[in-house]
Amino acid sequence: MREETPKIPQATSKRLPLYYRFLQNIANSGKKRVSSSELSEVMKIDAATIRRDFSHFGALGRKGYGYDVHYLVDFFRKTLDEDAETDVALIGVGSLGNAFLKYNFQKNHNTRIVVAFDPKASIDGTEMSGIPAFHPDTLQEKIKELKIEHVILTVPSRIAQDVTDQLVQAGVKGILNFAPVRLSVPETVRVHTIDLSVELQTLIYFIKNDVKQSHL
Predict the structure, then answer these.
(1) Where does residue 58 rank: exposed (0-12), middle (13-18), buried (19+ CB within 10 A)?
(2) Which residues fall in the annotated binding site for NAD(+)?
(3) 3-state DSSP call for residue 185?
(4) What role is this protein assigned (predicted)?
(5) What does the pLDDT look like over 79-96, one tens digit per residue?
(6) How confident is the model at residue 14 (pLDDT cuts 50, 70, 90)?
């Protein structure tokens, strides 16, 4: 009988890249082993949360010893599939999209923006920050041609759903959405929406709430 892979909570999954990044830094410092309390101190995440997150993947450490740093780095690299290169398309090269192009992700891991789409680009292609960019009229054709499955969406809200429909038809499996609108997609497509205004409001709320709590 086939053993089912345990379902990892979404909150834990979101923290995995953070664990990988901090553990890489710890490994680069020459440290051989680390405890959950030490990780908690540098990451500002409760030690109990770290131990609970790690427990979803089995016995990653030993009581009284802690965690082997190089083993964890290797484990999370494989878990996050960091050995495989992932090509990403950027849809919309406005202020935010242009910032993504200039940053690009390959500097930090194996995810890279390889193509962009924007109305300012030509049908035949225009170079933007060293990345080939094309007019949206070529969107589906190019996405299929390049076998792109992951995109970053930074378009105005009014056209976000129409663009998403085209991406779904082109075979895209994952969308990182920066348009402040809820997108409708099939169950086979995953959307992560980052609304910067909501994130800022949340930050302000927590800061004000922390101040109130400190005066109680």
Answers:
(1) exposed
(2) 92-97
(3) coil
(4) Modulates transcription in response to changes in cellular NADH/NAD(+) redox state.
(5) 887 666 789 999 999 989
(6) confident
Q: Which residues pair with 130 in a beta bridge?
A: none
CATH architecture of the domain with residue range 10-79: Orthogonal Bundle (1.10)
From-to residues of CATH 1.10.10.10 in the chain: 10-79
Helix, strand, coil share of the chain (percent; to 5): 45, 20, 35
Which class is 86-198 in CATH?
A: alpha beta
The model's confidence at residue 1, banded by pLDDT at 50, 70 and 90, is very low
Cα separation, 211 vs 216, whole angstroms: 9
| DSSP helix/strand/coil, 167 | helix
Domain with CATH 3.40.50.720 in the chain: 86-198
Q: What is the pLDDT of residues 134-176, one digit of tens each?
A: 999 999 999 999 999 999 999 999 999 999 999 999 999 999 9
End-to-end CA distance of the chain: 57
Annotated binding site: 92-97
User: What CA–CA distance (Å, rounded) separates 26 from 92?
Assistant: 37
pTM score of the predicted model: 0.71
